[in-house]
């Protein structure tokens, strides 16, 4: 079973009320078990919502902070939403008696981004890093990909 960012399969859960529908991801999902999740929705942030980015102004404990464009710290919400999404994915995997083989996540998102994320300045500037949900999955040893690179790594049977 695969975890998929819900916005990639056409669900309108993006911060602006839209989606990031991706035909390659949808085709990939056609013949296999998957669970769509949106950590920011699971955080109860609502759609549409004010966009957030991971802040570079790290506090003394060096933990990631997620701040919305109005300066509100949403670190707790993002952390909780990621945990809820992960728990939902685990439950779905158990229901079909499969292990979670990997995740295809929306690139650049402060939740789902893998490898590159926005830098917290809301200027469209990218830096190296992962979103909060991607980090959680990596901690759980689940391979993570984006809609841009998954075909280079996953052999579609
Ligand atoms: S990138 Fe992740 S958190 Fe953002 S809308 Fe898509 S699924 Fe939700």
Walk me through what this model shows.
The chain has helices at 23-29, 39-42, 75-95, 132-139, 150-153; strands at residues 2-5, 34-37, 52-55, 65-68, 102-105, 116-118, 126-128, 144-146. The model has no long low-confidence stretch (mean pLDDT 95). The strands form 3 sheets. It has a 4-stranded parallel sheet with strand order 2-1-5-8. A two-stranded antiparallel ribbon has the order 3-4. A two-stranded antiparallel ribbon has the order 6-7. Helix content is 28%, strand content 18%. A hairpin with a 7-residue loop joins strand 6 and strand 7 (126-128). By secondary structure, it is of the alpha/beta class. It is built from 5 helices and 8 strands. The structure holds iron/sulfur cluster.
Specify the number of helices. 5
Please, what is the average pLDDT?
Answer: 95
Bound ions, cofactors and other small molecules, one mention each: iron/sulfur cluster
CA radius of gyration: 15 Å
Strand order of the largest sheet: 2-1-5-8
Span of the ends, CA to CA: 13 Å
Question: Biggest β-sheet: count, sense, barrel?
Answer: 4 strands, parallel
State the total count of DSSP E strands: 8
The assigned structural class equals alpha/beta
Quaternary structure of the protein = single chain
Q: What's the short story on this structure?
A:
The chain contains five helices and eight strands; from the N terminus they run E-H-E-H-E-E-H-E-E-E-H-E-H. With 157 residues, it is an alpha/beta fold. The longest helix has 21 residues.
Chain-wise SSE layout:
Blueprint lengths: L1 E4 L17 H7 L4 E4 L1 H4 L9 E4 L9 E4 L6 H21 L6 E4 L10 E3 L7 E3 L3 H8 L4 E3 L3 H4 L4
Parallel strand pairs: 1-2, 1-5, 5-8
Antiparallel strand pairs: 3-4, 6-7
The structure holds iron/sulfur cluster (SF4).
The site of iron/sulfur cluster has 12 residues, from α2.
